[in-house]
Hints:
- Helices cover 73% and strands 3% of the residues.
- By secondary structure, it is mainly α.
Amino acid sequence: MDIASTYGLPEIALQLLVGLSRSMILFIIAAGLSLILGVLRVPNIAHGSLYMIGAFAAYTVNTVIGGAAGFWLSLILAPLFVALLSLIAERALFCHLYEREHLMLLLFTFSLMLILGDMVKLLWGVDYKSVTAPNVLKGALMIFGLPFPRYNLFLLIIGPIVGFGLWLFVSKTRIGKISKAASVDRMMVGALGINVSWVFCTAFVIGCFLAGLGGALVAPTMGITLGMDHTIIMEAFLIVVIGGLGNIWGALVGALIFGITHSLGVMLLPQFAIIFPYLAVVIVLIIWPRGLLKSVW
């Protein structure tokens, strides 16, 4: 199908912007997963569950406080709640398992995912929840003569801000530089008298904070329900793999590929749109088996 003959250039450009906005949420979630993979070498399957908890926590904050204040506070309090939960899990459980084989870590985080899913069911029930964006983010702006949702524009702004903040942490702060060194040779970092355990804890909590932030950001765009963690963790792992294991900028590239190909699929074959990102993943891995950017593994 010739897209240009079916849709005009404004429609194509607008659909690509929609894909970019979805890519921003995927990037935030995948960047957190990539940070954990890169520094701790932990394939955290429970990352998707933390994203789901972030969405439910955002719903609770919005319900209790209400109005625009509830929404803006949910973007802070929901990720902080997820970060606190991850801090408890890391100190109580993960810190004792870093030297174990990856298969054991996979099984452990899978079990944790099931436990967190039951916890969500216990706290929030099984009914669908929803979050309403504040008035300033409702409605649409006219771009290329076509309406573009304000909330999608907000996502296009918040994504680069989060990416820049993560880059500052990794590249410019002392703890970030130590994290990079620990990802290469944790024994040498420990030999220098640095508490590697707390370095790992910091990286883990920040990665989980990003999962919670992704959940809070996605809450106004979809129904919040049990099981929403399953799809996102699969997408996040694929994004991390095609971008390069542990490479944060690779997560951005992978998220852009995922979001844009899905948008193009909606235009070409709407009923099969979900297939297009996975076809892109297959093509990338055939050509670049180790990912598009350098892997830290």
